[in-house]
Backbone:
């Protein structure tokens, strides 16, 4: 009896320790970034172009660039990802080919992002001759987040109770009517969650935009989708490693803006999901 | 059984993968009658009625041998669209399963997917269906409310109304009272008695008293076989088969 209690305590200790080891670094990162970055945040920093070789001024072009890239990625990836998810969850038969496809999509989300960058360089920049541009970068980021969108959308579609589909079909609805009127509306929260997780990922990655869009220093806003653009993660990399004597608070300020942007997107996802879950009762 | 035959199963064998769920079943459902299917769990009675509206083909790895007729139409013929069959043969499921939509939208859904657009007609049909399902007086003030806020018994009557709105000819009830209390059950049974005036009804039930109360004909299923089929009165008072007798007197099942 005492033995069971002791092993219970030991197990609890290690489980708790493991959790603590995860929480502490995350907390520290956030605290340090806020502490060191906060002094840099002011109106000029958020709305001005970089000046004096990026040692002063603001990061506005990078914020705008990241915004365009994320928007472009989602415009490209959401429709395609959603349609593929509908096909895979509603129409694809359970055979070897489709199982391989599903497995491949899951594995795609594990491919290192620099590989996507190289792929984007070869396909969009060189082969399609889009050059280093917002278009190439958006498409590359879009392809990178496709697996996330497909996987989460598929899960959302599959979590809609089978009984809803059966009733709809039993009332003489076609399969497509059932999907459009019954399955999709009930899967929206899950699909949105996946989309916003994808957004966050697209906003934060450096490697895919490195070869396809990111400008080292471009003190003006892009005028079309064929222009290069600055982006927050790459700008952060540049001012941290490529430009000497950049004030620490500018670097941390940039990190803080990026972090806030991503956290903000995740927060939206959580709120949307929470609201839909409250309504859902089955 | 003077009424004409509405639906008919002819030498039906059904397989889930390699497992045979139904063995050589011949059975006729007459118009304006209630036909009950009884038998212990897993005997194949639900599988059987789901053949009448081609619901089983939604499941992967199944195989049907034999024929099912609606009037004289072979419903599994390649020329026949499952959607058309399901418009004529409706189904009420075991668990009340309203859509997470308003009461009104639940009833009008079947009309909308069938291409009805006229608002007045839809509103009239919703009222008529809810009245037929004896639910109108309880919900007429709150048609815009979520159907999920109704009680279990009300939800099941809503599902019946939703089915009636499509104007089908046959209604299949798959254990409609399994999750309801006795009062709700009595209401549904009353409703079934009323509906048989204009519909042909097939009901699967665990409850033998229910079969005795509502049906004209009863089929007893056991391990995928139709052991006995005939007038309800005969099945319950003078069963021909030993197994039927054992089941209805409560010796197993």
Residues:
């Amino acid at each position: 009896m005492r033995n069971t209690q002791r092993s219970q305590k030991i197990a609890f200790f290690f489980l708790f320790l493991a959790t603590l080891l995860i929480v502490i670094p995350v907390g520290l990162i956030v605290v340090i970034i806020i502490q060191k970055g906060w002094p840099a945040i002011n109106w000029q920093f958020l709305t001005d172009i970089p000046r004096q070789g990026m040692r002063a001024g603001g990061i506005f072009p990078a914020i705008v660039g990241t915004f365009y890239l994320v928007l472009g990625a989602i415009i490209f990836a959401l429709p395609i990802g959603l349609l593929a998810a509908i096909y895979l969850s509603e129409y694809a038969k359970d055979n070897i080919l489709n199982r391989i496809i599903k497995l491949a999509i899951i594995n795609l989300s594990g491919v290192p992002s620099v590989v996507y960058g190289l792929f984007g360089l070869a396909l969009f920049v060189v082969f399609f001759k889009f050059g280093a541009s917002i278009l190439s970068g958006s498409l590359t980021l879009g392809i990178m987040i496709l697996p996330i969108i497909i996987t989460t959308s598929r899960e959302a579609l599959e979590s809609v109770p089978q009984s809803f589909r059966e009733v709809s079909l039993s009332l003489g609805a076609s399969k497509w009517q059932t999907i459009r009127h019954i399955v999709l509306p009930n899967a929206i929260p899950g699909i949105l969650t996946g989309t916003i997780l994808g957004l966050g990922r697209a906003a934060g990655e450096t490697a895919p935009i490195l070869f396809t869009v990111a400008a080292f220093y471009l003190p003006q806003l892009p005028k079309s989708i064929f222009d290069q653009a600055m982006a927050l993660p790459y700008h952060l990399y540049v001012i941290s490693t490529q430009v000497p004597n950049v004030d620490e608070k500018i670097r941390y300020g940039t990190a803080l803006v990026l972090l806030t942007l991503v956290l903000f997107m995740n927060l939206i996802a959580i709120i949307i999901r929470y609201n839909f879950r409250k309504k859902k009762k089955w | 059984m003077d009424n004409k035959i509405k639906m008919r199963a002819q030498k039906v064998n059904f397989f889930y993968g390699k497992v045979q769920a139904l063995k050589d079943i011949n059975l006729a459902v007459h118009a304006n009658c209630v036909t009950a299917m009884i038998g212990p769990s897993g005997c194949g009675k639900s599988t059987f009625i789901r053949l009448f509206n081609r619901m089983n083909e939604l499941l992967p790895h199944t195989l049907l041998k034999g024929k099912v007729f609606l009037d004289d139409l072979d419903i599994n013929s390649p020329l026949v669209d499952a959607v058309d069959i399901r418009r004529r043969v409706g189904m009420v499921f075991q668990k009340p399963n309203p859509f997470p939509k308003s009461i009104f939208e639940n009833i009008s859904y079947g009309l909308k997917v069938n291409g009805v657009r006229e608002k007045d007609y839809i509103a009239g049909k919703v009222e008529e269906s809810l009245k037929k399902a004896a639910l109108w007086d309880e919900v007429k003030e709150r048609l815009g409310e979520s159907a999920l806020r109704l009680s279990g018994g009300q939800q099941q009557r809503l599902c019946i109304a939703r089915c009636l709105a499509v104007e089908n000819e046959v209604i299949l009830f798959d254990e409609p009272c399994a999750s309801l209390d006795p009062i709700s059950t009595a209401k549904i049974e009353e409703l079934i008695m009323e509906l048989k005036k204009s519909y042909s009804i097939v009901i699967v039930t665990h409850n033998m008293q229910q079969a005795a109360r509502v049906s004209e004909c009863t089929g007893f299923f056991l391990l995928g076989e139709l052991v006995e089929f005939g007038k309800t009165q005969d099945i319950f008072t003078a069963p021909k088969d030993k197994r039927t007798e054992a089941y209805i007197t409560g010796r197993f099942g």
Q: What stands out?
A: Chain B has a mean pLDDT of 91.
